[in-house]
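User: I'm putting together a small comparison set for a docking exercise, and I want a reference complex before I start. The sequence is below, and the ligand is pyridoxal-5'-phosphate. Could you produce the 3D structure with the ligand included, as structure tokens?
Assistant: Of course. I'll restate your input first, then give the structure tokens for the complex.
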Amino acid sequence: MAGNTTNPAESRYERLVRNLYRSGGYVFAAKAGDIARQHGIARVARLASNENPWPPSPAAVREGCEALQGANRYPDESVAALTGMLARFHGGYSFVTGVGMDGVIETMIRTLVDPGDRVAVSVPTFSFYRLAALAQAADVAEIPRAQDFSVSTREFIGIARDAKISFLCTPNNPTGTVTPADDVREILSAISGILFLDNAYVEFSGVDYRPLMDEFDNLVIGRTMSKAFALAGARVGYAFVPGWLVPFYNRAATPFTLNTISARVAAGALGDREGMEEYVSYVRRWRERFREECPLPSSSSGANFVMFDTSPLTGDEMVRLLAGKGVIVRSCASFPGLPDHYIRVSIGDSWENELFLAAMEEICRPRA
Ligand SMILES: *Cc1c(COP(=O)(O)O)cnc(C)c1O
């Protein structure tokens, strides 16, 4: 007989679970369907997860359908179809791949970090670096950003100097802040470990950190197919890595971690550079409109989202007000190191963006 299946959390075997996972964990965006039902709204604007609102490239869909035909076989362990396309897209770099960039981050930490090793994280930022480092029993040290969310290289180097691996997100989630390549170069020259530069949103920024790969062999640049390439559901990430790191990463990775279908879908999407670039210019236009037309103060953003200051309301309060008008955005209250009065709003489809601006107008400038 199985135990109590209706509430498995009450099992006496719960004591077996690591303390780390008794509570907390990754914070997911509210489900659009749930909010729509609560408020009796037919169509909800989904602006909480930085997704591309448009469907994937037809080339990606075609490749995926073809790849399904061969799903009886294990994937090619060298993921050659994808890494070959990456080399065609970016030029002659070394790459590793994973199940989303999240998967790459997890494997990279597993490759490098022993229990008690220092992992440094520039905050406020994406929460998964910390979660993945704690899973490996790392000693996580946070490096606070300046008041304007820029990175102080002096502060960064002071804390990260002897870390095994340090995480710097640029453009940063959730602030949108872009760190200049010269600052990254200064950091790379001064630290003794690896710098993991998270470039999930780099396509929207106009900044190119790839040339730094030729100068440093302690730089890893994480990329994802989830944002600019519209493949969040396919879970494909990759990284530019120094050549020496490739065999070690592959040894630490779960065997066959990236499935055949997702790998081929990603390769197909990389073949459609024009489709990606069209979305990027669309995002840039709307990013400007968001900052000009939304009545709240915002930070300059190099990403496909904008962070707004909601004070005197908290981010959570603003999220509830917007949800009541059919607009789902992300409260930044769960980002450690950030005060509780910010929201992060993704650039969505045009109707979703218009709905957001209209809702903000009603909330901030109610007519008498
Ligand atoms: C979305 C995101 C990722 C990872 O996305 P995957 O879907 O796992 O590839 C990584 N870093 C940041 C900052 C992100 O916002």
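Residues 16-54+274-364 form a domain with the Aspartate Aminotransferase, domain 1 fold (CATH 3.90.1150.10). The longest helix spans residues 273-293.
User: Thanks, that's exactly what I needed.
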